[in-house]
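Margin note from the TA: students keep mixing up input and output lines. Inputs are the sequences; the output is the structure of the whole complex. Example:
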Amino acid sequence: MSIILDHVNYIYDEDTAMAHAALIDVCLNIPDGQFVGLIGHTGSGKSTLIQHMNGLEKPTSGCVFYDGKDINDSDYDKKSLRAKVGLVFQYPEHQLFETDCFKDVCFGPKNLGLPQKEVELRAYEALKQVGFDDEYFYQSPFDLSGGQKRRVAIAGVLAMKPEVLILDEPTAGLDPKGREDILNLISKLHEEMGITIILVSHSMDDVANYVQRIIVMNKGRVAFDDEPKEVFKHYKELEEIGLAAPQVTYVMQELHEAGFPVDTDVTTLEDAKNEILKAFGKC
Amino acid sequence: MLRTDKLVFEYIRRDEEGNVEGITRAVDNVNLDVKPGEFIAILGHNGSGKSTLAKHFNALLYPTEGEVFVDGMNTEDDSHLWDIRQEAGMVFQNPDNQIIGQVVEEDVGFGPENMGVPTQEIWERVEESLKTVGMLQFRKSSPNHLSGGQKQRVSIAGVIAMHPKCIIFDEPTAMLDPNGRKEVIRAARALNQVENITIILITHYMEEVIYADRVFVMDKGHVEMTGTPREIFSQVDRLKELRLGVPQVTLLAHELKKAGLPLPDGVLTREEFVEELKKIKR
C-alpha cells in the first residue's frame, strides 16, 4: 500500500499577499511496511507533508497516490483513505472526549459505519495492542497519566485498522520511561502487524534507534532521504538547518579526531559501545 | 530565596455529582531551601508532583499543610501576593498559551504595564529584556510569525521585564526542536550567570540539567534524590527505577564501565568522556 508523492507543491494563502510555499517539489515513495523517521525544524513543512498523506490538505500542484490511485481524484473515497492512513496528532490526548476509555476508542470504528459488535471487538483489540490494562477500560480517560492517555489516543486510531500509521511527535512532553514505552510500542506495531510507520520527531536519538529510513525536511523541500547512518554523516549540514545528529555520533567524531581507531558513522548507543570496546581490544 | 517548610498539597477528587471520592497527595512533605543566584533543576516522571510544587513558588497554589516563603514572604499572606508574583516569574511549556500581544514589544510590556511602571520605563525594560534574550530585532514582529524557540524567548523576556529575582521554567523546551531547545537553555543560563537570577528548571531532558548547581529528583510528591548533576547521574540504575534516564554520554560511559573499561561514574559531557578515554589509553 505504498504512498507516492509526485512533484507535490503546496502554497498557503495562494493569491494573497501572505502567500507562503510550505512544500516545494516534494517527490517521495514510501513502500509498504517501512519504518520512516521524518525530521526537520519547526516550520520546515513536516506537518503539512503528513496532512497530504491522508488527504487533509490538497496539493496546489502535483499528485499524491495511495496504493496506485490518485487520492485527489473527484471520485476517490477519502473517508476510507483516512481509515487506512491513520494520523496521530501532536498531544493526541487533548482529543479524548468520551466518559470512559473504551467508548473513546470505539468512536473511530463507529464512524466507519461498522456493526456494534465489530466496533467493540476492534476497540478491545486496539486497547490490548497498546498494552492497556482491562481494569482501566471503563475509567474516565481524564484520570489517567499522560503516557496512559496517549496510549488510549493511539488505540483510537489503531481501532480503525490502519495500514499506515503517521505519528506527529508521539513522545513530546513525556518522561524518559514514557518516551521509551511509546517508542517500543510503535516499534512492536511495526514488527508484529507490519504497519507502515511514519514517525515525526525532534529527538535525533530516538529516530536513530528505531527507524530504517530518515526523511529530512528543510524549508519545504526534502533535504535528505536515506538510512540513518548516511543521513547523520551530514551532521554539519543538519546543524545548519537547525537539527543535529545523535549525541553518540558526535562522541565518535571527537574520539576519531583524538586519534582513536573508531568508525564515525555510528548512530546508536549499542554500536558506539561495541566500537569503543573494539578500539580498546576488549571485543 | 525560596524555602518550603514541610509542604503538603492535596487535591480532592470528586465524582460527577461533586461528592468527594478521595484525596490525592500531589506534594508530600517537601523541604527545600534555594539560595539566591542558584541554578536548580527538578526532575521527575509525569505525575511526580514537579509542576504542582512549582506552582507554589509564585502563589498559584497554596499549601494544604506547611509553608512556602519567597524571599522571606509567606505565600499565604495576601498582602504580598503581587510582590511574590513579581519576584518569582514563571515560564510554561506551551509558548502559544502565554503570548497575548499582537506585537512582540507589546507582549513584553504587558507585565510591567500591569505593575504600574511609568511608560518611559516600560519601553526601557522592554528593550533591555528583548536584548537579554537576543530577540531585539523582532520587537516589531507579530508573535505568530516566530518559531517555537523564538516565541518561548519572548515569553522569557516578558518575565524578565518584571525584574524578577527568580524564574521558574516549567518544561520550557518540551515542544521545541533541538535548536529552539538550545536557544532557551542558553537564555536561562545567561540569566543565571550574568544577571544572577535564581533559576528553577523543570525538565524531562536530562541533557539540560548538567549545568545546574543542584538537582532535585521527585517521586510520588516528595524529593527522592538531591545532589549535583554528577552525583545524581552517577546513579544510573536508581534513576531508571524512577522512570528517568541519564544523558546519552553518561549512559554510554556507564555501559562501557560495566563492560570492563575503568571509567568513573557520572561522566556528564562529551569533552569529559573523550578525556577519560584518553587517560585509559595512556
